[in-house]
Specification:
Layout lengths: L23 H31 L8 H5 L12 H15 L1
Length: 95
């Protein structure tokens, strides 16, 4: 069993591949656990790259810390309706 992302790009291929696990449920759980571990490592790497990029940038202190965690618990994630209403408000201001 393995996880494949559609249009995976850099993440194409089998991720979290498991073999010789007794039972479908156990195999799925182990595959999911390995996939989550892989994605957490990708996230850690990207955050670290962001920190290095912003190192020495004036006003960049705390930007990465403020962005980390957004989207995981729903905080900071805009719904499609919110984006549409913001667009309509912007268009009204132009008229």
């Amino acid at each position: 069993m393995a996880c494949f992302f559609a249009n995976g790009g850099a993440h194409a291929g089998p991720i979290g591949e498991v073999r010789n696990v007794l039972g479908k449920k156990k195999a799925k759980e182990e595959c999911a656990r390995l996939t989550v571990a892989y994605l957490e490592e990708v996230r850690r790497y990207r955050v670290e790259c962001g920190r290095r990029v912003l190192e020495g940038v004036v006003g960049g202190e705390g930007v990465v810390d403020a962005a980390v965690g957004r989207g995981w618990d729903g905080e900071g994630v805009k719904k499609e309706e919110d984006v549409d209403s913001e667009f309509e408000d912007a268009m009204e201001e132009l008229v």
